[in-house]
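Sequence, please.
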């Protein structure tokens, strides 16, 4: 871990070996973030750090009596859920004639039940969480007309449904997704409200980091609506995870198809784009985690790699220096634009050769080469987490890359 201070004196703690590992634009963004007037103690930056919109991805920002919608970001509540089926991969080989054919059949069945990309359900999906009035009245329309159709759908970008195997040969399923279009609209609405408030009072603030003070009703309104988006995102993941597991047991052992009923009780969930009020250093502060997850002492978390590299199930150590947080993944080593320009399709295909994942040309920006080394990322935060399981990918399902923000 290295430390530096911004030009305004804000302390930044970064879980890397040296600052040269952080791209110049991300360093500039950290200096901008340090200009916020209400930082509590310091800003913690995880080893998967890379450039984001408004704030670096992989940052933990504690704020005294303020919340910054653009630090949480547009995909509120985005996170990972995972489930251990208890089935050993060798059992699959024993009982199924041809593993490739098994996973191709599972892939087809899963995609019939999990809309991806711009696809939604044709009928409203029931959920008690829809019985809510958002404080942002203009967003209520999206909840009524779009969220009810998008619940249980994957979206695109870096979101995925994946089958994996752990160090003991047990098969797991993992889902990465967020709050879809309604969460995006909530973020956009409150950022605009914050900008207008600060403009009226002629208050200066760092670029793209407009904030809401705790003495304004919009502070509570944002936390209320953001909280709904976090719950929606979680329900979204559980439903996809249940369907992925159900289709697995349909094919492997239909008598165990009801095992999916235990997904929510035995599964793991961790989200990485949210803000909540916590106590740190004896102070009640709003902790923003943008591309970072909670890692309280003993808390079980998930740190995914890429389509071709391992993911980790971890246990938090509750380190106060990181505000009891850890990274949310391996982090990008190059932008999507650069990846599309520089990664050769054949190299992309070779990287996935040990999996059953289809190397779709449209997803070259998600190629393993565009991500940091997950093993190094884990080692650089070993004071924040303890690895519990290492999961190797079997097959990854993704949506339309153009649906990254939807």
């Amino acid at each position: 871990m290295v430390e530096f201070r911004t030009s305004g004196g804000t302390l930044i703690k970064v879980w890397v070996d040296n600052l040269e590992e952080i791209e110049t634009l991300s360093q500039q963004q950290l200096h901008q973030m340090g200009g916020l007037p209400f930082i509590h103690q310091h800003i913690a930056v995880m080893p998967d750090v890379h450039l984001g919109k408004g704030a670096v991805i992989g940052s933990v920002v504690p704020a005294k009596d303020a919340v910054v919608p653009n630090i949480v970001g547009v995909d509120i509540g985005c996170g990972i859920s995972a489930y251990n089926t208890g089935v050993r991969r060798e059992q699959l080989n024993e009982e199924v004639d041809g593993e490739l054919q098994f996973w191709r059949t599972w892939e087809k069945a899963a995609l019939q039940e999990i809309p991806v990309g711009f696809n939604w359900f044709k009928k409203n999906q029931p959920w008690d969480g829809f019985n809510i009035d958002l404080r942002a009245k203009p967003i209520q329309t999206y909840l009524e007309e779009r969220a009810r159709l998008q619940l249980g759908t994957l979206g695109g970008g870096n979101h995925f449904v994946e089958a994996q195997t752990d160090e003991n040969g047990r098969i797991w399923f993992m889902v990465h997704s967020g709050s879809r279009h309604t969460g995006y609209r909530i973020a956009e609405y409150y950022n605009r409200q914050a900008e207008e408030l600060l403009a009226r009072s002629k208050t200066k603030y760092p670029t793209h980091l407009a904030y809401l003070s705790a003495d304004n009703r919009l502070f509570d309104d944002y936390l209320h609506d953001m909280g709904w988006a976090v719950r929606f995102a979680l329900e979204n993941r559980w439903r996809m995870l249940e369907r992925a597991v159900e289709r697995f047991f349909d094919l492997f052992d239909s008598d165990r198809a009801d095992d999916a009923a235990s997904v929510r009780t035995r599964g793991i969930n961790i989200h990485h784009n949210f803000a909540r009020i916590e106590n740190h250093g004896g102070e009640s502060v709003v902790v923003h985690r943008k591309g970072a997850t909670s890692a309280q002492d003993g808390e079980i978390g998930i740190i995914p790699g890429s389509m071709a590299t391992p993911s980790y199930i971890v246990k938090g150590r509750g380190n106060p220096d990181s505000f009891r947080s850890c990274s949310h993944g391996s982090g990008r080593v190059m932008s999507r634009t650069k990846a599309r320009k520089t990664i050769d399709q054949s190299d992309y295909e070779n990287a996935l050769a040990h999996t059953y994942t289809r190397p779709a040309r449209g997803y070259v920006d998600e190629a393993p080469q565009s991500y940091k080394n997950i093993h190094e990322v884990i080692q650089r935060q070993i004071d924040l987490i303890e690895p519990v399981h290492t999961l190797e990918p079997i097959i990854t399902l993704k949506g339309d890359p153009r649906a990254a923000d939807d």
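The first strand starts at residue 2 and ends at 5.
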